Amino acid sequence: MIAYLPTIYPDELVYSWFCRYYVHTGCFSHKMALQELYCKKSDYLSKEFIGNLNKEAMEQIDKIYSLDKLVLDHTMFPQYARFIPLAEKKEALYRLAHDSCDAHHLFPVLPRNDGEQYLRYCPLCVKEDRKTYGEVYWHRKHQIRNMRICTKHKCRLMESSVPAKSEQSFTFCPAESYTYDGEAVFENDSLAIQYMEYLVSVFESVMDFESDIPISSILYDGMSRTKYLKPSGRSRYTKMLAEDINKFYENMGVCSIVSVYQIQKILLRSLSEFFAICQIAFFLGMKPEELTAPSLTAEQIKQEQDSHYMRNTAPVDWDLLDRETAPVLEKFAKAVYDGTANENGRPERVSEKLVYREMNLLGHQLENMPRCKAIFEKYTESYPETWARKIIWAYRKLEEEGKPFYWTDIRKISGVKKKNLLEIVPYLKEHADADMDERIKELIEF
Ligand SMILES: [Zn+2]
């Protein structure tokens, strides 16, 4: 049971908030406070996200702040998920807020460079926070990859001794005990300040959960106004772009500069790294809004997409590919859905990611294949619905074995967590007959 939760401050990391909770409640030990918040003994404190909260903590927190809003406004989600495809972005938000999913399964989290290993702070913000709030907290903005200035005070950020990696932490390190209001070193490189302000402005802008414009198309559009794209639109001068970007940033003191390999991957839609995309876009002279609220037409997106294939003789015949792929996809999706594709026979969710991987498609290409898209949509379902089907499958399997069984047996073979049960109930009757629906509910005590 959480005794009392302090108010969360603007731009404060959830981790920082939990640290203050620990201090304010006067918990005797880290272990005790961890137990009040998390599920298992092995759960570590997540620095950049929320972590594996237990059901009670989740409910209590959700009463004060919506969990979606916490993820959006108080974790590093707007950095890591900003440029991933729409379907993955929605899934990531849901799973971070409601399923306590490990962020590493949802989007790439690149290894840290020197200068990004520890939580950072601004000595002047420390002074200000103490004056305004009576205590110091860890700011989200200061932790953005590649960030080395406090854009509010135009001074260099300091590195604390608290590792930024979540995996290493079982202890609360409140900013109050790990920061100093020492001498501020002001930045006088105006270009560096502009770049850092650019990062903050992209990071802080509202995230778009409506349109699905690939970042490769947005950058292609930006490049079309420069010498890095041939007027025909067919060739990108990636190597020249990478060399010029390197020269542009090399004296700025940033801890990493996007490589030619990373640029290629971004333009081919297989990398969505925040700092790298911002570096390219800022260099190309693109406005932050072009990244965060793009206004490309379907024609412009298609143009970029087609440009990938022009080098290999004929353009792709999407209609033919769609017709040929549809029966294969139908078979595959059905087998995943009903479990015949799995070694243990357990039904699984047909996710967009899985379909793209199996069909060997690049991001967004399903849009060009209406038959395949319809098949995918036919099998699309929410997580609670998949969980319900897994539970029913497990129930039937155990019933067939003919021995007495309990809820824990169902949980073990279905892999569904206890805290998710409430969401499953409405879907049970859709996939089981009334009789079985009742028996399952009785067993899981609903
Ligand atoms: Zn500051």
Share of helix among residues?
Answer: 40-55%
Distinct small-molecule ligands in the complex: zinc ion
- Shape descriptor: flat
Span between termini: 22 Å
- Strand arrangement, major sheet: 1-4
Count of helices?
22
Number of domains: 4
Would you identify the regions where 5 or more consecutive residues have pLDDT less than 50? none
Task: Give the overall average pLDDT.
Answer: 89
From the helix content, strand content and strand pairing, which structural class follows? mainly alpha
Describe it:
The protein is mostly helical and 446 residues long. The protein has four domains: 165 residues, no CATH class; 95 residues; 62 residues, no CATH class; 61 residues, no CATH class. The chain is built from 22 helices and four strands. The chain has a two-stranded antiparallel ribbon. Strands 2-3 form a two-stranded antiparallel ribbon. The longest helix is centred in the C-terminal third of the chain and has 21 residues. It is flat. The model has no long low-confidence stretch (mean pLDDT 89). Zinc ion (ZN) binds next to α7. Zinc ion binds next to α7.
Give the helices and strands, then pairings.
Elements: H1 14-25, H2 30-37, H3 55-64, H4 67-74, H5 77-80, H6 86-98, E1 118-121, H7 123-133, E2 149-150, E3 155-156, E4 158-163, H8 175-178, H9 190-204, H10 215-223, H11 238-249, H12 260-267, H13 274-283, H14 288-292, H15 298-307, H16 318-338, H17 352-359, H18 370-379, H19 383-401, H20 407-414, H21 421-431, H22 434-443
Antiparallel strand pairs: 1-4, 2-3
Helix pairs in contact: 4-6, 9-13, 10-15, 16-18, 19-20, 19-21
Zinc ion is lined by residues 122, 124-125, 150, 152-153.
